[in-house]
Amino acid sequence: MPGAKEPETVLTRASLLIVALAGAMSLSACGGSKRQNAYVTTPINESVTAFRVNTNTGDLSQILGSPYPTGVSPTAIRIHPSGKFAYVSNAGEDTISLYTIGSTGALTEVTPRTVTGDQPADLIMDPGGKFLFAINSAGNSISSFSIDGASGALSVTAGSPYQSFGFTPIRGAITPSGGFLYVANSNSATISGFAIDGSGALTQIAHSPVAVGNGPNWIAIDPSGKFLYVANLQDGTFSGFMIDSTTGQLLAMGGSPFGVTTNATTVIPLSSLVVDASGKYLYVTALNSSSNVYGFTIDGTTGVPTALTSGTNPIAAGSGAAFVVNDTSGQLIFVGNQVSNSLSGFKIDAATGALTLISTTTTASAPTSMALVK
């Protein structure tokens, strides 16, 4: 396709496929409603599919008119806190697509698309919905945009793009306060931290970047904004840090990095992680393990994880579990499986953190991200 770009390294290609949105990143537990909508990007058929989610059963039903076309190689999707707008990063053409969300959950693209840096692998939005950041993996940069609350339109922030201070940034996360942004630099084995000012401009945090394991692929921050975790794809470990709420500096937890197996010779490629809405549990996914979702309890003071002892742990999702996200109720997590082309829905036991598989939904091709909204 004219203008489409291929990632420059094998690691970049693998990492871009793994990137997902989901999260977070980004998906707070609002409770109450039994219905919510989910949006899933699939690069091979260049589209985003919309689903209606039943919180009781975890079942996903495709919304009429879905899927909707995106740009080339969509990697991540983010939903505005108002529920009115969706944004998709298109890594193959260096753009962001803006969509309005209708009353039925249907998407309508608003053109023209917004230009980013080279190969946007992830999108991060601040909790207030004022700013959107594009993590440009091939450009080693971060593009910053302000968001028009009425139209959803993006405007480039003065000084953008900003250096990532590492090679191949592929994933980001923002603190619940909206004050700090962190970026995983896959080919540098580091995490870069930035302070965000009132205009959306970024300033590098002191003592940043910090070292993590090889191939950092995912970042998760707990709801209190005290703890940050990093999945290290090539090491089979995940790193844990405490966040200084004033400076944003990261302090390694005791015992970090952590493993998911006691076999020192086995490397399990950890692809993503998420802290549940209660802040009590951490879930970590792996790419090539049959039982590929690992659960941990989080010490509320130190942030140190301890493997769950209740239920089946680890528990199996589909093949190639590449990303994990919270739903909006705080009761479910969903795992995107890139080999089996599916989404696995799990119910969280609020008392123990144990997971129960309650749904499996087939996707048109390998999913790269998922975002949910009431």
Compile the SSE list and pairings.
Layout: H1 10-18, E1 35-42, E2 47-54, E3 60-62, E4 68-69, E5 74-79, E6 85-90, E7 95-101, E8 107-115, E9 120-125, E10 131-136, E11 141-147, E12 154-156, E13 162-163, E14 169-174, E15 180-185, E16 190-196, E17 202-204, E18 210-211, E19 216-221, E20 227-232, E21 237-243, E22 250-252, E23 258-259, E24 270-275, E25 281-286, E26 293-298, E27 305-307, E28 321-326, E29 332-337, E30 342-348, E31 355-362, E32 369-373
Percentage of residues assigned to helices: under 10%
Shape: globular
Top-tier CATH class of the domain at 10-256 and 369-373:
Mainly Beta
Structural category: mainly beta
Structure, described:
Strand 14 and strand 15 (180-185) form a beta hairpin. This protein has a domain at 10-256 and 369-373: 7 Propeller (Methylamine Dehydrogenase, Chain H), CATH 2.130.10. Strands 1, 2, 3, 4 and 32 form a five-stranded antiparallel beta sheet that branches. Strands 9, 10, 11, 12 and 13 form a five-stranded antiparallel beta sheet that branches. Strands 14, 15, 16, 17 and 18 form a five-stranded antiparallel beta sheet that branches. It has one helix and 32 strands. The chain has one helix at 10-18, and strands at 35-42, 47-54, 60-62, 68-69, 74-79, 85-90, 95-101, 107-115, 120-125, 131-136, 141-147, 154-156, 162-163, 169-174, 180-185, 190-196, 202-204, 210-211, 216-221, 227-232, 237-243, 250-252, 258-259, 270-275, 281-286, 293-298, 305-307, 321-326, 332-337, 342-348, 355-362, 369-373. With 374 residues, the protein is an all-beta fold. Helix content is 2%, strand content 47%.
